Amino acid sequence: MSASSANGGIPLDGVTAVVTGASRGIGEAVARSLSTAGARVALVARGREPLERLAAALGASACAVPCDLRDAGAVNAAVQAIIAKLGGPPRILVNDAGIFRVGPLHELATEDFEAMVSVNLVAPFRFIHAFLPAMLAGKAGHIVTIGSVADRSAWPGNSGYAASKYGARAVHEVLRAETKGTGVRATLVSPNATDTALWDDVAPDSRTNLPNRADMLRPEDVARAVLFAVTQPETVNVDELRISRA
Question: How far is it, in rounded angstroms, from Cα 131 to Cα 179?
C-alpha cells in the first residue's frame, strides 16, 4: 500500500512529478515522500553527485536532472531532459529550490540579491511556464510552490529573500486565479523556519534574533504537507498551507 493511500489520500502510482531543490532539505524530503507514494520523480538541483545518490536510493522511480537554475539555457535543457526521462510533461511540479542570504539593505551585495530573485522567483516561473500549457491541455496537473513565513512577514536583513518569496506568493495567487476550473491545481506551502542546509552559512544558533535549529520544523514536516495537498481528490484544491512549530 502506498503512503498516500495509507493516509487516506489518492494514490500516486505511476504519476509523474518534478521536484526542484531535490538534492537536500525540503526538496529531498518531498522527493522521497512522492516516490514512496508511488510517483515517478525527476530530481532537479545543481549538484550532480547528491542528486545521483538520491536517485539511486529511490530506485527506478527516480531520475536525476542536474541544472543550474540561475541559467535560462540550463533550465530549458533540463525541461527537455525531464520530458524525455518521464515520457512527457509531469503531472506534479514542486518548486522548492532556494537560496538564502541575509544582510542590511546597504550591505547586502547586489549579486546576492539578484541570485535570490533568480533562483527563488525567476526559476520557478520558468518551470511553470514550461509545463503549464500541457497541464491545461490535459485538464490535470498540480503546481506546488514552497513558500516561507517570509512570504508574508518582513524582518531586518531579509530584503532579498523576502522580495523573492513575496513574489513567489504573488505568482502562486495569480496562477490559482488563472487555473481555477481548468482541472489544474495550485498550492502554496509556506513553512516557518525549517532546519535545512539553507541555514548553514547563517549560524542561527549564534544569533539572538533567529530561532535555534533545534526549535525549527523538520523537512519531513513540510513534505507531509505537500503529500497531503497533492493526494486530495481532483475536485479539491488546497490553496494554501501555513506551517509552524507547535
Answer: 13
* pLDDT at position 6 over 50: no
CATH number of the domain residue 209 falls in: 3.40.50.720
Q: Is 213 helix (H, G, I), strand (E, B) or coil?
A: helix
Domain count, the chain: 1
| Residue 244 CA neighbour count, 13 Å, CB half | 4
Range of the domain at 146: 3-243
Q: What is the pLDDT of residues 123-150, one digit of tens each?
A: 999 999 999 999 999 999 999 999 999 9
Q: Would you state the cell numbers that stand for residue 29, as one nine-digit string?
A: 524530503
Cα–Cα dist 212/108, whole Å: 23
Residue 166 designated active-site: no
Q: Which of 100, 113, 131, 161 is catalytic?
A: 161
Among residues 171, 112, 126, the alpha carbon closest in space to that of 146 is found at 171
Residues recorded for the chain: 246
Grid coordinates representing 171? 505568482
Q: How many angstroms separate the CA atoms of 166 and 188, rounded?
A: 12
For residues 20 and 124, the answer to whether their CB atoms sit within 8 Å is yes
User: Using an 8 Å Cβ cutoff, are 175 and 238 in contact?
Assistant: no
Non-local (6+) Cβ contacts of 210 within 8 A are 193, 202, 204
CA–CA separation, 129 and 41 (whole Å): 19
What does the pLDDT look like over 145-181, one tens digit per residue?
Answer: 999 999 999 989 999 999 999 999 999 999 999 999 9
* DSSP symbols for 92-124: EEEE---------TTTS-HHHHHHHHIIIIIHH
Contact 109, 99 (CB under 8 A): no
State whether residue 188 is helix, strand or coil.
strand
